[in-house]
Design brief:
Helix content: 25-40%
Strand content: 15-25%
CATH architecture: Alpha-Beta Barrel
CATH topology: TIM Barrel
Largest sheet: 12 strands, mixed
CATH superfamily: Aldolase class I
Distance between the termini: 28 Å
Structural class: alpha/beta
Number of helices: 11
Oligomer: single chain
Shape: globular
């Protein structure tokens, strides 16, 4: 089966000839609408950062209803016509890689596995970019049936969301009794060679926070890389509060009950997760690791993504494309820039690249603002939830 090559009908009178200017973009007060002449190449912004890591959402649909992301009744999904086709995805990725310096691609959702042409899209991307690292973030439901095909098509590795190993807790968090299906998917990904298999866990106070040491022990035993993620204010119910969030400091304290953590000597290199080497605690050792712990064998690593309390915005290298082809320069941004609409109007690759560069030039400093701090009085939670943005 081939990737669907059809493009929805163009809007009447909307075609753009090669000499026309890209559509205007919104901008913060006092910032020019266009990227200035002489600005750095690629997807550079006003703060000296350059995006090389592309996150592209294949769909806004999801088959779970995680409490920290989506309402129990779900959301109003995008129409099929609004979502990028396979051909449009391949073209947009090609512009990022060939013209704008993108060096890594992650496919996200919603849930990518619900997209019927997922394998074909990955195959087309791999044929176009033989050396490009292509990863995917998934909830794992149905992965056991597709892992081998995804690997054969060209997927490099995979991240699976897994917040609990206890069926009752998993069901409470996701509102679906699918733990056995997720675990089967994780096993299948490992067997297919989609490693390193990374697991993403969000800790919720009073629900699964006490499970963190046992979840890490299980991941280490199976050779998976676990990453804990601070809950972010990206839930559709807008029920997030700083008070109820489990912080990175608390995560380290919880893990120290059984393990000693020490900084991973490898450079972070723009990664969202701060990595730690994990050793079994010895009697009387300090929670952060002592000389006695330093001689114990390294069992593996654990990552902590502290977007809220220990932000890493100053080294952010990500650019995001939503399922309907909108550019989001920041996960918390309330401004979006339409790339797909311009494409469907007949814009050239050069015009699309210019629109993308203009949008990324306006990337805020942090958390959707031009200063750091989710505690700031002017912080406003984005209207979109994480599932609608694409992580």
């Amino acid at each position: 089966m081939s990737v669907q090559l059809g493009i929805p009908q163009l809007r009447e009178g909307g075609a753009t000839d090669s000499g026309s200017q890209p559509l205007p973009v919104a901008r913060p007060a006092g910032v020019p609408a266009r990227r200035p002449a002489g600005a750095p190449a690629g997807l550079a912004d006003r703060y000296g950062r350059r995006a090389t890591d592309m996150r592209l959402s294949l769909t806004d649909k999801c088959n779970l209803r995680c409490t920290y992301c989506m309402p129990a009744e779900g959301l109003e999904w995008l129409s099929k016509q609004a979502v990028m086709t396979g051909e449009e995805i391949v073209r947009i990725v090609g512009i990022g890689v060939n013209q704008l310096g993108v060096r890594e691609l992650r496919l996200t959702g919603g849930e990518p596995l619900v997209r019927a042409d997922l394998v074909e899209i990955i195959g087309a991307l791999r044929r176009a970019h033989p050396e490009l690292p292509i990863s995917m973030t998934t909830n794992g439901v149905g992965l056991d049936r597709k892992a081998a095909a995804l690997k054969a098509a060209g997927l490099t590795r995979i991240n699976v969301s897994l917040d609990s190993l206890h069926e009752e807790t998993f069901t409470k968090l996701t509102r679906r009794p699918f733990l056995d299906r997720v675990l089967a998917g994780v096993d299948a990904a490992w067997a297919a060679g989609l490693g390193p298999v990374k697991l993403n866990a969000v800790l919720m106070r009073g629900i699964n926070d006490t499970e963190s040491p046992s979840l890490l022990a299980w991941a280490l035993e199976h050779g998976y890389e676990l990453r804990f993620i601070e809950q972010m204010p990206l839930d559709a119910d807008h029920g997030w509060t700083r008070r109820n969030m489990i912080t990175a400091a608390e995560i380290r304290e919880l893990l120290s009950e059984e393990f000693a953590l020490s900084p991973d000597p490898r450079a972070r290199d723009g990664a969202p997760a701060e990595r730690f080497e994990v050793r079994r605690r010895t009697a009387g050792s300090a929670a952060s690791g002592s000389s006695a712990d330093a001689h114990a064998p390294v069992l593996g690593t654990v990552g902590i993504i502290a977007s809220v309390t220990e932000p890493f915005c100053s080294d952010c290298r990500r650019t995001r494309i939503t399922a309907e082809g909108k550019i989001m320069s920041c996960l918390f941004s309330r401004e979006e820039f339409d790339l797909l609409g311009l494409l469907r109007q007949g814009a050239s690759d050069a015009q699309l690249a210019e629109r993308w560069q203009d949008a990324m030039w306006l990337k805020p400093k942090a958390h959707g603002m031009d200063h750091v701090g989710l505690d700031a009085p002017d912080f406003v939670q984005p209207d979109r939830s994480m599932s609608a943005i694409g992580g």
